[in-house]
Every structure is written in structure tokens, then in C-alpha cells.
Amino acid sequence: MHKHLKLFALIALSIIILANSANPPDGRTGAAGESTCMVGCHIQGSSGNLDGSVSIGGFPSTISPGANYTLTLTINNSSVPLSLAERGGFQLVILDANGANAGTLSGASSSSTLTSSGGRTYWEHNPAKNFSGGPAVSWTVNWKAPSSAGGNTITATTCAIIADIPSGNSNDLQVTDEVSGTLMSLPPLTVNVTSFQNLTCAGSADGSITVSASGGTGPYNYDWAHGASGATLTGLSAGTYQVTATDQVGATGMVIKTITEPTEIHINLVKLVHVNCLGDATGEITVSASGGTGALSYSWSNGATGSTIKKLAAGVYTVTVKDSKQCSQQAEFNVLSPDVKMDFVVDSLIPPTCPLQKAGRIQIHAITGNDPYKIRWSNGDSTFRIDDLAAGTYKFTITDATNCTLLNEIKITAKDSLAPTLKLKSTNVYLSSTGKAKLNGADVILQASDQCDPVNLIFFFRQF
Description:
Layout: H1 2-22, E1 52-57, E2 62-63, E3 68-77, E4 85-96, E5 104-106, E6 112-117, E7 120-125, E8 129-130, E9 136-144, E10 153-164, E11 173-183, E12 190-197, E13 207-214, E14 221-224, E15 232-236, E16 239-246, E17 252-259, E18 266-273, E19 283-290, E20 297-300, E21 308-312, E22 315-322, E23 328-335, E24 343-350, E25 360-367, E26 374-377, E27 385-389, E28 392-399, E29 405-412, E30 421-424, H2 441-444, E31 445-449
Parallel strand pairs: 2-11
Antiparallel strand pairs: 1-3, 3-9, 4-7, 4-8, 4-10, 5-9, 6-7, 10-11, 12-13, 13-15, 14-16, 16-17, 18-19, 19-21, 20-22, 22-23, 24-25, 25-27, 26-28, 28-29, 30-31
């Protein structure tokens, strides 16, 4: 019976030893509110010639919020002889001044693990490492500092065991270490606009904003209210833009920037003069413009410049107005003209009967112009009917109410279309002693007549 009890006790003890060697129970670091390795795990007893220490390396005395640190835990074996120490194990916890877990542990190296219990995270051996006659064993882990901590003091505490040969939990050597650091108080995270570009032209999309964060714990992420990300935005339309910067510990800062646009260029018609008369070039356009940036310039589709163009024929004219940034606006104007030219109609035309007679008449009236009309004749008359006219050409100028003019002429030819009639009689003419003869018209003319009086006779003499 006693032999069975001894065997059972030996088996149970072996299970406990193997379990603690593989992975110790949590809460054995010796930190505030915790026990040490010697409680329920190992027995200090007489450790004989076991000797050594444990150290926590890489833990900063001044801690940057959110910064990442690599911690190294080393169990130093100074036993005599070194081979007296078989293996080493540990457990570590990092707490703030209020006893709360501080920061985040990750990336435990081989033969170690991370466990959690009671709101605290423990880094511990899994399994214990053999010294193999050497002077030390070590492990590494990554620690990210918190953004804040109670009391601003953070302490890493470890309890380690140097186990002897033969294996067992008696006569082991417990060693401890504790290091502290002060968590820096960083300035609050702020975001500022470092550069921006308003729109060049009204309605364009060439605005930009660049922001920069400071304070907190960098690097920073930038998230814009409309869904974009990054410190710089380009291709912006006019509007208000909000960006939030977030640092590595979750602190945020925000800034709002409004991108503006210049006033749109507006073109106003000041004066539009249409062509008075078909075929003329008397049109005129005057415009004014406002808005844009800086001085405005005007250029027209016919090559002219300036706000006014004159001497225009009928047609469509386009003006382009540009500002100092080459933003532009266009407007189109139509210069009109009458559809037809002014003309005239002859009401009556009475020629004189004879070439020298002043008995002719001309009467006309104007059409397709704008009443009232005025007329001026080449003979000085200013009525649309002129009388007592001899045969000839009469020029005239008609002017309507819009000062359109018509120049033309009318020719009057006398009615005399019959040739004079002449009847002669035979007569004898005698020469004088001097060889001359006298001849009177009455001696040879029986009858002479013409449509227009008087009749002028011209004699042509021949010598014989």
C-alpha cells in the first residue's frame, strides 16, 4: 500500500514539474499584487552552488508614447561549475503606477509565449531553456508603449528561475529584476495647412491643399471628409475641405480649409449698331466685361482688339475676354442689315417735243427704304417731280430716314424724230464779168419745213 502511495506522489510531482517547466502559471512575477516563482512552482531550499541573475534589456528610461521597443530578457548563469545549472525560465509583466497593464506585447521569440489573465499580459518561457553548460539564455519580445499611463511611470518586472541538476523544483535559485521608465508627455497633435492653391479660373478644378501634422506620435495618417487620404489633395473644385490626422496611438487633430475661385468673367453688351443700308459697313459693337483676375483684354473674331469695334458689315462677331491668368469667356453678337437696297420707281417721264424745247417732266418715288425720303437733283431741284426740262441726263440722290442713299440718273430724249422737208426749183444763174454769181434762197427754194421751228439753211458752194 505504501509503495503505491509513493509511486502516485512521484508521478504527481513529475507532472507539476513538467507543467511549470513548459509554461508557468500567471501572476508569478513578483510585481505589485502578485507572488513569485517560489509560490506553487519552485522551492528555494538550499540552492547549493547555483548562482546567477536576470536582466531586462532594451527598456527605456524615457518612453515615447506609441513607440516600439525590442526587449531582451537574459538569465545569467554564474554557477560553479556552470554545468550545475540545467535550465532557466521566467515570467514578465509591464504595469503602470496604478498597477494596470501598460502597452502591448507582441512577437515573442521561440521558447516563449504571451498569455493574459486578470487584465494583464504576461511574457513567459514556453518551455524553459537549457543552459547546456553555457553562461546565459535569453529571449526577445516587442513592446509598443501606450499613449498614456497612470502616474506616467511604467515598470517591467520579472521573476526567473535557475534550475539545478537533477531535474526537480527543489533547491532552485530565484532571481528577479525590475526596470522603470517615464512616459513622455508629448504636445497635442495639431494639423496645419502648409500650402494651398485656389482655383485659377471660375469653374475649373485645379485647386490643391497640403497639410502637415505635428505633436503626438508620428507617423500620421490623413483622412479627408470626402473619402480621400494622404497629406496632399490635387484637382480640387471650389469648396470646403476637412482633414483628420491620426497618430500611432490614436490621437487625432483636424483642420478645415476652403478653396475659393475667382469671379466668373461676365460680358455685357453696351451698344449694338446695325448696318443701315444693304452692303454698307456701318455696324458697331461696344461691350464691357467684369470679373476674372487682374486686367481684362478683348479680342474679336475679325482680328480687332479693344472693347469697341466699328465699320462693321453685317455678320456674326465673337469677342473673347481674357484675364491675367488666361481665363476666358466668349460672347457672340449679330450685326443685322436690311434685306434689300433702296430703289425707285418712275411715275412719269415726258420728254420735250424738240431738242431745244424745255417742256419735259420727270416724276419718281422711292421704295424699299425708310420713309421719309429726300431727293436732290443735279439741276438743283429737291422735289420728286421736276418740270420744264430740256432733253438731257438728270442725276439724283435719294436719302431715306436712316441716311441710306441711292444714286441714279434718268435720260430725257426729245421727241423730234422727223427730218426737215425741202422743195427746190430750177433756176439759171449768170456769172458777172468778174466770174461771180449771186444766188438767193428764194430763187431755189419752193418750200422748207420742219417739226421744230425755225429752219436753218446752210448752202455749200462748189467752184466750177
